[in-house]
Amino acid sequence: MLENIDLNSRLKKEDYEQEKKRLADELMCLQQQCVSEKLPVVICVDGWGASGKGATISKLVKDLDPRSFRVYSMAAPTQQERRHPFMTRYWERVGQHGTITIFDRSWYGEAMKILMHDYPFPNKGKKGKGPHPLLRDTGDFAVTGSGGTIGLYAESARLFEGQLINDGYLIIKCFFHVSKQAQKERIDKLRESESTSWRVTESDIRQNKHYDEYYTIIDALLERQTACGTSSPPITSAFAESPSCRRLPTRCARRSSASVCARKTP
Questions:
Q1: Dist. CA 249–CA 247, nearest whole Å
Q2: Kind and range of the H or E run holding 70
Q3: Residue 54 contacts residue 73 (beta carbons within 8 Å)
Q4: Is the separation of the CB atoms in 102 and 72 below 8 Å?
């Protein structure tokens, strides 16, 4: 799936400025329509480290009414959160009808981290070194087989999203994709300045170092969610390429706007 994303597209500055103003006005109007019609919206923003997730979210919400949207930056789960089912902390943050909830890293991003050893594995007990043993020992089965580890998280996501849809929620999922070289250049640029170096984490560096392994996991998760039917309406998966800092916010805003406009109020 990731191989289908065009990483070479660019947006001219003059086109960006014109499109940015139009989309900002459109999103403000759509937000008020969501409030008046009680349409609940969940936007999931995932992607590679240093791909521009936080900066894009900041631009998206800049002109919105803060009373009816919330942004959650999902860090590693706390010890208390680890004692509950995988999706519990997302259930607790989903907004009521008429609000917009934005997740900076969603359940898909967390599943990727679990599978690539950032967090303790559910069936492992201890934090390990290297990829999840199922991925290491059973090869492609864990990635593509119905009983594999990825299948477990894809099924959890499918059930979670299905319940939200049945309650009238619109879910918009964005994944920001960059090449290995582009990610390294972004990381290096952020590390050059004291004002931005804090944004680079060990996880970002490790992700770039093991880019090919992460690519396999990410691509498999995205394929599995499509195979499970979680990308069909009323869910829209918006794959936004991110080499261009101008193209990414407009693409994400355009997809979000189009999804809300196309959705009929329950």
A1: 6
A2: strand 69-73
A3: yes
A4: yes
Distance CA 173, CA 252 (A): 10
Which residues, other chains included, contact 76 with Cβ-Cβ below 8 Å and sequence gap of 6+? 113, 118, 119
Phi, psi of 255 (to 5 degrees): -65, -40
pLDDT tens, 93-107?
A: 999 999 999 999 998
Q: What is the pLDDT of residue 226?
A: 58
Mean pLDDT of the chain: 79
Instruction: Report which of 46, 228, 232 is spatially closest to residue 144, judged by C-alpha positions.
Output: 228
Residue-wise pLDDT tens digits, 195-207? 999 999 888 998 9
Provide the pairing of β-strand 170-177 with 41-47: parallel
Supply the DSSP symbol for 7: S
The sign of the torsion formed by the CA atoms of 259, 261, 263, 265 equals positive
Q: Which value, in Å, is the radius of gyration of the alpha carbons in the chain?
A: 18
CA 50 to chain centre: 13
Q: d(Cα 90, Cα 88) in Å, to the nearest integer? A: 5
Residue 245 pLDDT more than 80? no
Q: Is 234 exposed, middle or buried (0-12, 13-18, 19+ CB in 10 A)?
A: middle
Residues in Cβ contact with 82 at an 8 Å cutoff, skipping those fewer than 6 apart: 120
How much of the chain is in helix, strand and coil states, percent to nearest 5? 55, 10, 35
Question: Largest Cα–Cα distance of the chain, in whole Å?
Answer: 54
Residue 98 has which token pair? 């008429």
